[in-house]
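Margin note from the TA: students keep mixing up input and output lines. Inputs are the sequences; the output is the structure of the whole complex. Example:
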Amino acid sequence: MLQVGFIGLGIMGKPMALNLLRKGYSVTVHDISESKVAELVQAGASPGDCCAEIASRCDIIILMLPDGPDVEVAVLGSEGILEDANPGSVVVDMSSISPVISKKVGAACEVAGLDFLDAPVSGGQPRAADGTLAIMVGGKPHVFARVLPVLEALGSMVTLTGPIGAGNVTKLANQIMVACNIAAMGEALVLAARAGLDPAIVFHAVRGGLAGSNVLNAKAPMVLSRNFQPGFRISLHQKDLRNALSMAESMDVALPLTSLVQQALIVLTNQGKGNLDHSAIVMFTERMANLEVANALASV
Amino acid sequence: MLQVGFIGLGIMGKPMALNLLRKGYSVTVHDISESKVAELVQAGASPGDCCAEIASRCDIIILMLPDGPDVEVAVLGSEGILEDANPGSVVVDMSSISPVISKKVGAACEVAGLDFLDAPVSGGQPRAADGTLAIMVGGKPHVFARVLPVLEALGSMVTLTGPIGAGNVTKLANQIMVACNIAAMGEALVLAARAGLDPAIVFHAVRGGLAGSNVLNAKAPMVLSRNFQPGFRISLHQKDLRNALSMAESMDVALPLTSLVQQALIVLTNQGKGNLDHSAIVMFTERMANLEVANALASV
């Protein structure tokens, strides 16, 4: 029977591992938090003491970790996957990290006789729980085909986008558009609100036209109701844009809009807003204008 | 019988005036081009020699002109509307102009005993021809109610967004989001293409998620096929962002993303691209990276 390892049981990893159990997979789990491992064991998983132990027991080893350095430690470090993995097994890194690290870790896996996919996801905790994530995969087609049934237990839209690293490049492209679209919405709403308009009416007047977007539909209501419960945190989006800008620089690509929005994320994090939903990017424009769009009507 | 005047028979104005004729309105038209007037006369309109003559003969006077100074001349200038309008008639300015000029012209109309609405549109020539424009209106509710049947002959989504000027504020908010969303798409596609990914696959992988937008669906295919036939011209979007930035400055609002995209529009216009569709904003990022996203695969 196929043995699936799952390393990283955070906000995203835990519901994903639970979905694998529900679909009947034999799952061995590891996390630095013993209580999270215990929760999954109660749901039917086997515990693993370290990444190397997971690797020794599994055919497919999934990682869902915060950032690239965590992935490097889990794969390349002491008690890491490469210390005890079986040749022919597949490492599937579903963390959202720099494609540069994906390529480095993927190459090390291949030297050790393992296959590797980078497979970051989009959709957040609710879609992780539903098993309807969008999954953007980089790697070899035959490896993708082998892992596809497992990925389809986690997501409803699984796309092979290119070789190792391509999954994370696609995720960064996604995150660039999301962050900039939020920031643009902020500028539009601040202009309208300062001019005395009701931003809710402006939202409804423009959402059906070319300015309409999934960001506008999902995030304008959060801005108008001042509900910045994440969703997706400012601090994580800052990590993604840092990875995008670093990668772009390494390829001699300039991303002026992205770099500007990253400055907004840095300012907001410095002001203690790192744990708010990324829709709070609009606060950057609001603060420069000394105005909150939701309260603008009262102040006009 | 209600007499409708229509001043400005350009790419947008001509199909709009034709729609009014089709719906059975009695329409008197004026344009600086005599041949355009002749076309409309052939379709059933009456000709007017100047704006003042249109005003003297009409209850509702619609303007569809390129920019604010044109509207000032048509209303306030020699042989302008105010020279010969009948008290109680309504001036409906459907041009996309600065809200500052809307307020100035609207105030002058009210002093002369006329009502005024600013009612810019979104949707471009195809929706002007279909009579399915989005129309964003500023003015008094009872004036809006009086003109609404005429506006509904031109558009399928007509929204009163606030007092005089609010229509153009809403249009500027719309144009900010459209321009920034296009620019963000450009940065995302350039990053992905330079990294060796097929931008068409990236487009399909992300369009269903939070990065999805009407801009992405409408404009990514144009970028990938290098079809920059307007649509909506770079030069007109530059005018809109100029008006947005000027208005924002007058209200002590800073719009850093908008100002950055405006620099891209200025550069492209200086390079002779002003008549291309605004999806060509991506060329700004492409040129900085010395890459075309559609040809990137060949060059990797």
